Amino acid sequence: MSKKTPFYQIHKNLGAKITDFAGFKMPIHYKKGIVHEHKKVRNEIGMFDLSHMGEFIVSGVNALEFVQKTNVNDVSKIEVGQCQYSQMCYPDGGIVDDLLIYKDEDNYMLVVNASNIEKDFQWLQKNLLEEVELKDISDETALIAVQGPKAEPVVQKLVEDNLSQLRYYHFIHTEISGVDVIVSRTGYTGEDGFEIYFNDFDKSKKLWNLVAEAGAEFDIEPVGLGARDTLRLEMKYPLYGNDIDKNTNPLEAGLRWFVKLDKGNFIGREALKKVKKEKIQRKLIPFVMQERGIPRPHYKIFAEGKEIGEVRSGTMSPSLKKGIGTGYVHRDYMKSGTEIKIDVRGKKLKAKVIKPPFYKDGSLKR
Fold it and tell me: Domains, the chain, ranges and CATH?
């Protein structure tokens, strides 16, 4: 039976199309549709219910050693109040999940994908070190994301802290109308934005309405998972289950910037060192359709008359008004400018490999 987030009834009242996603009943879009919501975030502001995401707390004497062991990025480099993007890998280099790591005063919070909560927790438990406590707080954590060029002035109305001083991928503990919250300057849209975590579910409706009221002057609207997917794809941000999974590694997925092979030992290090030494044989490439057509996952990719891969993520970009997608292809075809073809319903349509991201005009300030 699917779970409901603390905002479920609000979504119903707003006329959202609800579907089962990662074990939750979630809004895909509201009355005006995915394209409208997408453009709202790109041009002004939108708010998302992301309470389905998973949150784990890691604490104890060996917490840093444990998080270092289970992640490819160098967690020792982040300071209290800072976030870091990373991946957890299996010994063969395949990806367990991608996640955000929050470093707090006396613990780390790991924010993982909703579809992987149980799997991730079991993997971490399996590799747990002595004097480390691992706690799953997913079911008691609510999360509202506020994304778009107008995000800062809206969220600023809710907190006393000066948000112009809060840098990208940093967070603070503060309160909104007496409710203790974590506010981080993160997001997965390519726009400026904030994520608000709290565990007082009795105040969920109150906080949702406060955000809506704060954004009223910019005509803020709720945004569903449909637009969240098109927004992240326009930035070529990977989606677990599509672009990355246990059969792909971070190097071929274009995530090598986050893999710190020189930080010391971690799970998957030897396999990834071997991949780097032997050079990757395939790469996740972004492509733009040159003919009218929408690429969808599992559509075949061709070049020089032969099949070279398949689409992993694909959609009609609301910003570019063109079909865009990603797919793994042999390294001979991964360079920007390479011409390929996508089999769209039996027709091989022209496409071209580009340099990411697809959308280059976001408001995000790094």
Answer: 3-51+141-233 (3.30.1360.120), 52-137+249-278 (3.30.70.1400)
